[in-house]
Structure formats: C-alpha cells, structure tokens
Specification:
Elements lengths: L1 H13 L7 E3 L4 E4 L4 E4 L8 E5 L4 E8 L2 E5 L5 E5 L12 E4 L4 E4 L8 E5 L5 E6 L3 E6 L2 E6 L3 E3 L13 E5 L4 E4 L8 E5 L4 E8 L2 E6 L4 E5 L3 E3 L7 E4 L4 E4 L8 E5 L4 E8 L2 E5 L5 E5 L3 E4 L18 E6 L17 H18 L3 E4 L9 H10 L4 E8 L9 E5 L5 H15 L3 E6 L3 H4 L5 E8 L3 H7 L2 H20 L2
Parallel strand pairs: 29-30, 29-31, 31-34, 32-33
Antiparallel strand pairs: 1-2, 2-5, 3-4, 5-6, 6-7, 8-11, 8-14, 9-10, 11-12, 12-13, 15-18, 15-21, 16-17, 18-19, 19-20, 22-25, 22-28, 23-24, 25-26, 26-27, 32-34
Helix pairs in contact: 2-7, 4-7
Length: about 500
C-alpha cells in the first residue's frame, strides 16, 4: 500500500498526463510515449528539473541506478528520468542483478582475470553478451565480466550475440584416448566411449582440443569425431525458475509454458542452440540449451577396476531425507537436499548396475522413509555396503567442502577409500573422514558410511552442487571408491 501511494503522489508531482510508458529499443535506447516528461539532474525526486522531453523522442541510455535511467539529451547534456514508473524500460533479456553481495567484476570471462570492482544486489547492469558461464556487462562505461551463476536475469537468459567458440561433436570410436597434449607420446587422461558428446574448442593439424560434459578437457584424434551432437533419449533439467518453454527455436517465438528449476523433460531434438523437448501433456516445446543441464541415462566415466570386486555385491544406496523431510535448503537456488541426494543416488545406481552389482535404493521417489526402515532394508538385503548420501549446511555462509563419516572402526577404510575419490574427482575442500554417531551407521550391521557432499548454505558451492557435471563427478567418485575398497580384499 505504501508503494502504491508513493507511486500515485510521484505521478502527480512529475506529470500532468497519466499512463506514462517508456519502451526500450534493442540498441539500448528509450522511446518516450508521453508529453512533457520531466528530466532531473540526478537519480531522485530531490534533484532539480533540468528540462522536459516529449512524446516519441528517442534517447540513448547511459546508465541506470536502481529505479532511475540516465539519458543523453539532444543538447548533449545528461539527465535522469524515473524508470520505476515505466513499463518495459529495459528489455526482459537485457539486464542482470547480482545474487550475492560484493560480486566480483572482472576484466575477462574467468577467475584468472583481474578485478575491476564489486557490485551489489538490487543494482541492474546491461548485458552485452554471454558465454557458457560468464556474462559481459556494461560497468562504469566499459565492458566487464561477471559469473553467470551468481546473477539473476530480468527474464530468460539473454540470447547470445556470440556463439561460444568451437562446435559440438560425437565420438565415433570405441575406447578413444583423451590425451594431455596433441601427440601420441602425451599421457592418456582417460578413454572415451562411442557416441559420447563433446565440445570441440580448438583444432591443431590432426588433433582436436575438446571439453566433455563433465568439464574435463584434453586432446584427441580429429578423425574419430563426427561434427554434430548425438540426440538421445536423455533428459534435460531446468536450472532456473520461470524458464520459458517456447513454440519454436528462438526467443522470438511465443512462450507456451513455464518450467521451474529441477523440472525434467525428455530431449527429442536440437536446432542450433535450442533443444526440442517433450512435455508431460504430449506437446512439444523448445528450451534454450544454456538454461538447462543434461541428465544422461548412464554416466560414462568408468573406473579401470570395473571388472573386479563389485560383481555380485549388494550395495544399498540411501538418498537422505524425502517427502515432508526436505533436509537443508539452499540459499541461492533454494534447492532442497532431498532432491539432490536422489539425483546423485540415481546416477550411482546406474553405474553400479552396469558393473554387475546388485543395488537397492532405500527410496526411489519423493517419499519419507524412517531411519530405522532404512537400516532394516540394509539388514534384509544382507548388504555388502550401505551408502548414505547427504548435503550439508552451516550458519557460517563460507562453510564448504566434503565430509565423510563412519561409526565402527571396521567401516573406516570404506569411508577413506570413497572420500579419497570424492576429493580427487570433485575438487571441493577436504573436510576429512570423521567419526559420526548417526542412526543409519550406529545400528547398521553392514559396512556403512555417510557422506556430506558439499554445503547448500554456501551460495557459490550450492551453484556447483546443482550442476549435472558435479552430480556425475560425485557419483563416479563413490563408485570408484567402492571398487577400490572391494578390490583391496
């Protein structure tokens, strides 16, 4: 009500006509749609009126401060108009707002570039372009970069004016070597399976420098790559609330629905940087590829000890929380622990089944399972290992990293083997292997461990934990740790 009264009084003070509307043009200009719009010397009602602008006049936008727009008048002088009384004073795709305090502004798209300053929540900055992870903005009259995962967009994430370097490709060979450098004498980082999707960043003679969906990079022989990314029955997962589902492959197409962070849709095709998906209603829609992550049916990183140790073993996978027990909640994306634990558990389940292990999930959906029932499942199945998956929280916003817990001394080695792989694969802070007096460990007859795979209370870390890339790394690490443990028998 206070806001409404303030707006009404401001309209009477500023204008004789009503229904003030200012529309933003694509090139960063504003068109005035009323007569005698007052221009002030500064961004506020307390500043002097220095002139008026008329209906249908167009002006370049120089700067924005909260609800005010700075324009360049035809006389060459600069002035301010009240943007908080306008409609569409900026394109829905043209501004970003920091999610956190003191967000770093850098000279280039990466943390290795120098700092230009820091920006605060509620301030808006014009978008120039974007890459996969970084956004170029207009900052104090110059181009600058901010981390895309730490800003909110005014609408959809802006359509890129520049396509990221390189192109998508598919591996057309079995056990293709990914090497550290572009020659046969370079160390092999890992082997790629046929039909693995990659991004080609650079080519050098007969070699290509590629990036995998997990974020790993390396060199491989170009002749074994086929341009174009394989379309499979994978799902795509939305990363943001209020994401538009469009009738066609572009932001100029009508939005036929909205999706929220965590919603999954079956991928049925691609057109450029747009993904064609199947909706639950049976209809088809398009979603921008840069606002989703892919959820592969089977992760591709397989431990070299795959054929040993796990075959025939019974592994109980326990996704923490569920149902009305949501666990902790993130501060940036507001993600629920119960959802992330299930995502990680599902990926781990696929890996273990492929390795020949017998797997049992304590829950497969968003249901509440009592702690005693989780342990009972472990006992009934005569589990060879019980893996409980969780994410952490702290009142200290900077808390970060992975902690692994055991209760019985006999279970400590299992925790150590998996923890070692988690730190190696995820790159998160090592918070060590610790004793934990948890019910699912204390009352469990099977070798049992509990993992806290990062802090949802840390905005930066929560962003990482929500990515499919991290989920794959974490599930593969647990898988590899289990292989190490059973192979050591």
């Amino acid at each position: 009500m206070r806001r409404y009264i303030f707006l009404c009084l401001s309209v009477l003070l500023l204008f004789s006509p009503v229904h003030l509307v200012v529309f933003a043009a694509e090139n960063g200009e504003v068109n005035v749609s009323v007569s005698n719009l007052q221009v002030r010397s500064g961004p506020g009602l307390s500043y002097d009126v220095i002139g008026k602008v008329d209906k249908n006049e167009t002006f370049s936008v120089i700067d924005r401060q909260k609800d005010w727009i700075k324009i360049k008048l035809k006389s060459g002088r600069n002035g301010w108009i009240a943007g908080w009384l306008t409609e569409n004073s900026t394109s829905e795709q043209d501004t970003v707002t920091p999610k956190i305090k003191n967000l770093n502004v850098r000279k280039g798209p990466g943390t290795n570039y120098g700092l230009l300053g820091k920006i605060q929540p509620n301030d808006k900055y014009s978008v120039i372009t974007s890459t996969d992870s970084w956004v170029k903005i207009s900052y104090k009259g110059r181009d600058a970069w901010v981390a895309g995962w730490l800003v909110s967009f005014s609408g959809d994430i802006p359509e890129r004016k520049k396509i990221p370097p390189g192109y998508n490709a598919t591996v057309n060979a079995t056990d293709l070597n990914l090497r550290k450098g572009p020659s046969l004498d370079q160390p092999v980082l890992r082997k790629l399976q046929k039909e693995t999707g990659v991004r080609v960043i650079e080519t050098k003679k007969d070699w290509s420098y590629i990036e995998l969906e997990t974020g790993e990079k390396g060199w491989t022989a170009s002749k074994y790559l086929v341009k174009g990314k394989k379309v499979s029955s994978d799902n795509v997962v939305l990363l943001y609330n209020g994401s538009n589902l469009r009738a066609g492959p572009g932001i100029n197409y009508k939005a036929i629905g909205l999706g929220n962070k965590g919603d999954q849709f079956q991928l049925i095709g691609r057109e450029g940087e747009w993904l064609k998906v199947s909706l639950p209603s049976g209809k088809q829609a398009y979603v921008a590829s840069w606002i989703v992550s892919t959820s592969p049916s089977t992760p591709s990183i397989i431990h070299p000890g795959l054929k040993n140790g796990l075959h025939g073993k019974t592994i109980v996978i326990d996704p923490g929380h569920g149902g009305y027990d949501s666990g902790t909640k993130g501060t940036s994306f507001h993600s629920f622990e119960k959802d992330l634990t299930l995502r990680t558990a599902n990926l781990l389940n696929e890996l273990l089944k492929k390795a020949g292990a017998k797997t049992v999930m304590t829950r497969t959906g968003d249901t509440y399972i009592a702690l005693s029932d989780r342990v009972s499942i472990s006992h009934r199945q005569k589990a060879d290992a019980f893996i409980s998956i969780h994410f952490d929280s702290s009142n200290f916003i900077g808390a970060n990293g992975i902690t692994s817990y055991y209760y019985s001394e006999s279970d400590k080695q299992l925790a150590k083997d998996i923890h070692k792989q988690l730190i190696k694969n995820t790159g998160l802070r090592d918070r060590k292997v610790r004793y934990g007096n948890y019910h699912v460990l204390r009352t469990n007859a099977a070798p049992s461990v509990l993992f806290e795979l990062g802090y949802l209370s840390n905005p930066w870390e929560e962003t990482i934990l929500n990515t499919t890339s991290y989920q794959i790394k974490a599930s593969n690490a647990i898988f590899n740790g289990l292989v190490d443990y059973f192979n050591s028998y």
